[in-house]
Amino acid sequence: MASYSxxxxxxxxxxxxxAERGNPINVLKLDSDVSVPEIKEDQVLVKxxxxxxxxxDAKRALGFFKDIDSSPPIVPGYDVAGVVVKIGDQxxxxxxxxxxxxxxxxxxxxHPKQHGTLAEYTAVxxxxxxxxxxxxxxxxxxxxxxxxxxxxxxxxRAHFSPGKSILVLGGAGGVGSLVIxxxxxxxxxxxxxxxxxTGKLDFLKSLGADLAIDYxxxxxEDVPEKFDVVYDAVGQSERAIKAVKEGGNVVTIxxxxxxxxxxxxxxxxGSVLEKLNPFLESQKIKPVIDPKGxxxxxxxxxxxxxxxxxxxxxxxxxxxxx
Length: 322
Description:
Layout: E1 2-3, E2 12-17, H1 24-27, E3 29-35, E4 43-53, H2 55-61, E5 79-87, E6 99-103, E7 121-125, E8 129-131, H3 138-142, H4 145-157, E9 165-169, H5 176-185, E10 191-196, H6 201-207, E11 211-214, E12 227-232, H7 237-240, E13 244-252, E14 262-263, H8 270-281, E15 289-295, H9 300-308, E16 315-318
Helix pairs in contact: 4-5
């Protein structure tokens, strides 16, 4: 096992932990006596610099999928950006000192790790990580993995390809804001439409949407135009199927899927991040962090409160982490 030269990994670290399930604001506690996770031979130990919150973190704490979750006590957090401080014997891709980012849970809802990313250190398989794009800060990098992989893999699942049109439901959210950008810049969409509330329509256009639909004023399924693909990031597949062209595809990442819509659940992989790094480095794709969405480690509860409002544009980031 290699270690940072002149760097001592402490035996006890700080982490946010819940010992029982419930609303994260009520059950999460800051613990200064958490053991540093042991790494397996295919894992690296990451000194966490930034993490981000996703709706799945709150759903997990509330016990939405407790039958297939790890047992408490749980340190929440899927997304990480940080520095490799130790590597397992079989690790080939990374060395100590590398700046990396990724979603540490391969299967989003199937036994995610007991020790997540709201901690000073976390252990993660090398195949789930990629080198951090050099032009991005740790906070920007931490905002991306789960959301950009969900956006990308969902577009692939919907067989999205150059010249097709797409409607994104929830275009201002963490996933939706990246679906708009990826559809345009990576997949070559001919036309991108997206929904949001009134105050976020200009934001959708700044991301690359050609048509911004105010869901508070009109029903998207009543728009005369129909789309090759509808990407539902809000859980309205029963309406989404009315907005798709005959023979088109509807993919949803929230709630039950009304056929022919299909429910998509992410499998995390660093290879998607590696594929997208050139688009991030050329700034064709930009991370989207809510203007009020960066919280220091000590204010993680406030971050979860903000997540709960459902009014976040883009992502919430926890940074700096001591």
